[in-house]
């Protein structure tokens, strides 16, 4: 990320520049996983308590929870038997077993049926979901197929008919969430089914695809060869950005009846399962323009902006009769590139068989400002704040290797907590880490907003003051320092409420390492794990945090961006909506041909909380 500059016509652009981030003072140091330290009594205590609760129930291979003999409980029963008489105790034991068993069975049946989403927002149900998650993970054969219910298809958001074993997350993810994602409109569901049919007809290696590629190779423009048109998404930028831009490109494909094809970059097939049935979304390796992708930039002749400029009138009329057009929607795009967001220009692009898009921006908010898309978008998304939430759940299913990272981590550190708190720290300043002002900001936000309890500085031990919740905090950061400080704080001091806080961080990669396979797997796993929390704190300007909040359906508390190495006051605020922010929107009225504040045109597109010139969708 970088600074915003105003360009001609009052349009703002983002200059990312170098990856400004918090660097360790010396060479990156690799610390041992502190949270695995057996001396960390805090974590062990929490786990021990939860294990006790869990051991009472195991789940059989047919998916039904049953009661197993917990050795500790057996001992209690045996002692009681000798005191009170065998038969009475047996009877009581059977009664307890029946009551507990039926309550667990009832709750599981509620989960598996089709519950209203708010039913999940209770601790009882959350634990039952954890039983399910536990079962899924504990299966001896992790690739064993699970029964697919309507709930697992996310209330028909997902198509049926996939091979379940090839992508376990598609069916198991619901077991880790408190409820299914928010409901899609029937219109969106039918649009997705139509898209899948189109993809099957036009996707890679179909007759239509082969014909259209043939024309492309020979440089011929033809609108009659095939009735299939394509949008090719180029893999570009950090993983958070790529997830948001892929969702944006897909929505654009839905709106313009194009087929989305995905440049695999270095890692796309390693991170995401195929989302469409039968025909791949991956661009074939022999696609004739692939070797141009890296070179496409703001100056490329084939870019829409430059084609507009080369028109003698400076203004295109009618259709663009090009075999392909490059859409440069990267943060450094200029006023002509931004005409992409105008109706008239969309008409020009309509007949071009191939659009090749490079972007690092979540540009969906500006699609909502294009009049010809307005009605369709309203029918697809009557609730404007769940656009990424739904598209994200439809498109992004972690591959089995990433799902292993997610499910094992969840199982080991998070599943038993009553409350899961996510804290995502992305620092864009350079200097020795951790910064004290960032740490101060994290603590003042979480305590002020009642996300974490205060510590008691004066007493070595504080007894419980009421029913105790276990709170697990999942921190993510490239740096280790913030986690270490927060964990130590809650280890070295009791909380004023007596609650015990366990703090975990999966990795500390120190700096972005896009070429390293495991690096991006971990980044994806961490975004996903954050999305499984109940309360989320994110950093300003971070697409990593946006993905987590969007998938999780969470309105995060956003830590304001520190200025001059000082913790801002207030330290954070809760987001208006769960939608990501478009960092570099155009500020242009296509009809009036002059600058306009696009955050002030319709009630559901507003400026972002963390970036005053950004745009985001909010529910009216
Ligand atoms: N594992 C891990 N990787 C991280 C974390 N924060 C940043 N990264 C890495 O750095 C990249 C940053 O790119 P994004 O995912 O777009 O996140 P962002 O916060 O928007 O950062 P920028 O795009 O660089 O401004 C990620 O994709 C990861 O590769 C983190 O907390 N955990
Ligand atoms: Mg980013």
List keywords for this structure.
galactoside 2-alpha-L-fucosyltransferase activity, 6-stranded mixed beta sheet, disordered N terminus, 19 helices, 3 domains, alpha/beta, binds guanosine-5'-triphosphate, 620 residues, binds magnesium ion, 37% helix, globular, Rossmann fold
What does this structure look like?
InterPro entries: XG_FTase. One of its GO terms (cellular component) is Golgi cisterna membrane. This protein folds into 3 domains: 3-30 and 398-575, Rossmann fold; 34-176, no CATH class; 186-383, no CATH class. Helix 8 crosses helix 19 and helix 15 (400-414) crosses helix 18 (517-531). The longest helix is centred in the first third of the chain and has 27 residues, at 86-112. By secondary structure, it is α/β, with parallel strands linked by helices. The chain has 19 helices and 18 strands. The strands form 6 sheets. The chain has a 6-stranded mixed beta sheet with strand order 11-10-9-12-13-14, with helices on both faces. Residues 1, 19, 238-241, 426, 476-478, 507, 509, 512, 519-520, 522-523, 526, 542-544 line the site of guanosine-5'-triphosphate.
